[in-house]
Amino acid sequence: MAKFCSKCGSPVDEGAKFCKSCGSPIASQPAQPQYDQQAVYDQQPVYAQQPVKKGLSKSAKIILAAVVAAVLIAVVIIIIVAVSGGSDKDDKDDKDGNSSSKSYEDVLEETLKAYVAGDFSGIFDNWLFGAYLKDICDAQGEDYSELRDEIKGESADVADEVEEELGKNCKVTIKITDKEKANADDIKDFESEIKDDWGVDISVTEGYVVYYEAKYEGDDDKITTDGEAELVKIDGVWKVYELDDDVATIDF
User: What is the pTM of this model?
Assistant: First the structure.
């Protein structure tokens, strides 16, 4: 590295002790310190790399929300099924026309409609006699299948007669004109009568004698009749016990 006289500024040879121009002594320059770059680098503080926190993406949040919703829906369904597990019998009863939610008016009208349509199941399910037919046959030594077929044949005869007189597609509507509710003594007498006639024990909670007006209208003709029916409620279900109607009548 070139040197210069500190007094006059002239160049000075390497190692000269005096300036050639002004004779001034040349002051020795301190050696420049040498730095170990690697050592300096090694002495730099090392910082631990902090993990980068990343939030859920929008699509991941949507998927997570869908999974949670599906789980909640499944839980709700399981609870509903568990709570309503005992309703299978009630559903079957509804299908068979034996729903406890039906009023005695509904049962009466359904029975009349079953008559004109030749719907034996509808007749049989709504009749008290049908509900206890097996017990009656056992008590009286009758053949269940034979008696059931006999009733089925009679119901078909009624439907044929209605079609012959009124035509096909006969519709039925009823209007209750009067009714009498059975009291405790009436119910007790009725239960005794059933025991004597059928040989079976039943427990009646309610009973009505109903007077009604029925309109039967087919494709060819229509008629209006006055009828009377006796209905009883057993195990929460209304049943027809007796029916006096010019159109829909079967003698049990």
Answer: 0.58
